[in-house]
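Summary for the funding panel

The consortium committed to producing paired sequence-structure records for every protein in the target list. Below we show the first two records in order, beginning with the earlier of the two.
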Amino acid sequence: MPRFLAVYTMKPEDLASFRSLPKAQQDAVDAVGVPQWVAWEQRNAASILDRGGMVGKTTRVTKDGMVEAVNPFCGYLVIEAETADAAARLFQDHPHFTVFPGDGIDIMPFVT
């Protein structure tokens, strides 16, 4: 079955805004979102090959050396589905963007 990389995206300014909220407000969002995220993973467990994880600051390596970089990537997982559309449908109404300040989830097929 085809495999897909699902990359959670979030605008850096949205993350900064969320992190600037009082801890009690952040905890309240987590109290709602984390159980929904766990439930999503349980519903889709058969399609998840690698739960991946959330990621932090980026270091970009180029032929000119290493530099700090900014991108919208904040996490990933690897799933399998019959088609790209079927993979994308798994993420409709995902708590990443319905509860948390994420702005999207990019779905990309592995091609090798």
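The next record, for a separate protein in the list, is shown here:
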Amino acid sequence: MNLLASILRTAVPLLAGWVLTVTGALGIEADSVTVTVGITAAITLAYYVLLRLAELGAARIGWEPGRLVAGLLLGWARPPAYEKPTSTVPVHVRFDKKALRLEVGEALRRAAQDVKRHRP
């Protein structure tokens, strides 16, 4: 999952930037410069994917120098780690008028107290 997530986090911005460039922010004009940008994005993506695969492969076989070189060629010696949150926080939302008035009133009282405390 980390490999796929890191590739997607690189590919999607490259693709989006290229599409916006080629479509001329939806004016839809393409010239040699925009095609060059697309080719540059494709080469960049291929470079990234190949080095991430090399980094992952070297780590799996335990070849630390290969992993380190691939990581350095990507700009950082360690691959990114995308971790799931360890806990969640429940959120309670009340949609009745009375509760909303109470919450807004409390927020206004707190703001007024803050203003009074910070006046010179």
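Regarding this second record: Residues 2-73 form one domain. The CA atoms of residues 4 and 49 lie 10 Å apart.
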